[in-house]
Amino acid sequence: MRVLLSCLAVGLLAGCTAVQVVQPKQLRYPNPLTRVWVTRADRSVIVLDSASIRGDSLFGLLQGEHTRIPLQDAAQLRIRQPSEVRTQALLITIGAGVAAITLYAAHHRFLDSSP
User: What is the pLDDT of residues 5-61, one digit of tens each?
Assistant: First the structure.
């Protein structure tokens, strides 16, 4: 039961967000950052936690170490943001699943109660 609830919780959290490409100006205050995926020109990707932009650099923690990356070295920046479309799709899917289970249970209860 714990595994099922854990999977459901992860699905709900993942289903309501999406990783999206952003421009550095979108990362400035008041938009707090928790995690930024940085793709460099050589196509390597690093993940910075607790990231912030100061001046022309991105600062954050890389495997627990304070790191500075000049924005000119970043070919692409991605962050996880809320996704309205994914949230709506998830809610519709959950609603359809609940309706299907309810109809199934009602149908079988009706068949099982025959004299």
Answer: 565 555 555 556 677 788 887 776 666 667 899 999 899 999 999 888 888 999 999
CA atoms within 13 A on the CB side of 54: 7
Range of the domain at 66: 17-82
Residue 29 lies in a domain: yes
Residue at token pair 């854990």 = 6
- Cis geometry, peptide bond prior to residue 82 (ω within 30 degrees of 0): no
Could you tell me the pTM of the whole model? 0.57
Domain of 55, CATH number, reads 2.30.30
**Residue of 9, 17, 21, 20 whose CA lies nearest to 87:** 17
Question: 2-21: per-residue pLDDT in tens?
Answer: 665 565 555 555 556 677 78
